[in-house]
Amino acid sequence: MKNIKIWAGFITALCLSTVVFAQKPAVTLKMGDPAPPIKIAKWLKGEQVDEFKKGQIYVVEFWATWCAPCRKGMPHLSELAEKYKGKVNILGIDILEVSKVADKTIDYMPNVERFVASMGKAMDYNVGADGPDAFMTKNWMNAAGQRGIPCAFIVDGNGKVVWYGFPPSGMDEALELLVAGKWDANSPALVAEMAKKKDDQIMEIQKGYTLAWKAKDKRKQIEIIDQIIPIVGVNNFEGGHWRMYKYKFLTDIDPVAAKAYGQEVFKTYENSPIMLLEWAESIMGTTKLSQSPIVDENVRDYDLVMQIVKKAMEHSDLQDPTVQAIYAQALYRTGKKAEAIAAMEKANKYLATSTQHISEEQKAEYQTLLANYRSGK
Predict the structure, then answer these.
(1) Sign of dihedral through CA atoms 231, 233, 234, 237?
(2) What is residue 149's three-state secondary structure?
(3) Of these four, 66, 215, 230, 277, which has the most CB atoms within 10 Å of its CB?
(4) What residues contact 114, with CB distance under 8 A and at least 6 apart?
């Protein structure tokens, strides 16, 4: 029953993998319109872009440090930046940093700067931040009626917005057509159709997965996951979750294969701290006391967990309370109690001074975790 609940939560997460931030505004920016101006409060990485150059294609993707789907999509954007180097200029624009805190005047820029610096190769493209006047949010997101992040806009060589939306729902397909010189007036509808076909294909495959789940046929589940992963990709939210479930089933039926697969996935995500930390939590349990680990306790590979967490720490904001809390848990699970307590104390310290919205529930959970580590629970 617990696994059924976990699976239901996974499907819900996939369906809600964009973060909604406001009611839908009126649409004044449509596909085919000239792109709004670029006005960035501060450029944090890469080339400064103040205007769209003739003949150059741009992807303008909006994100926030607190948006998990945004962070998980960054390695794929880096892949696109490399794939289309010299042809496509990718801009990651941070927005809405104060949307979840009461004090709207808080200085959020240091937190964003630390985050960008920590991401390394996982965020290997141009990055800027919107200012307190929210110019980019208002003139791009709001104008296009987009109310969720991540959200990407593609600007063609003539400075027109040819496509926008949730990146997994057509960005790659639109970009491929545009770079190949095949974009025309019918392309937005074609991209929408392609995205729908992909979704329909996945949903059809998932029917078989559901039957295998009910039959507790883990080998069949792995077989079906291997069909899904090439469709959804690897360096994104869905790909990471499907690989985690494949790993979980392997730990149940073939520990040797699970160990090899764990190392394979580690290599894939070694430059993506957000994916590594999520993997570590999936194996050993999250820092949320109400959530159970995916992997059963008797087959958890804590050596892999520590390997994952140590690598993630190399590319993480060490003042992020969540990073310290996951590190503390990994230390505690591997018998390093004193180090775990020290890391959890840091997590609570950074939580108290965080510029992001922190719930009372999270504060209480972190205090409980610290107390548990001290008492040896």
Answers:
(1) negative
(2) strand
(3) 277
(4) 317, 319, 320
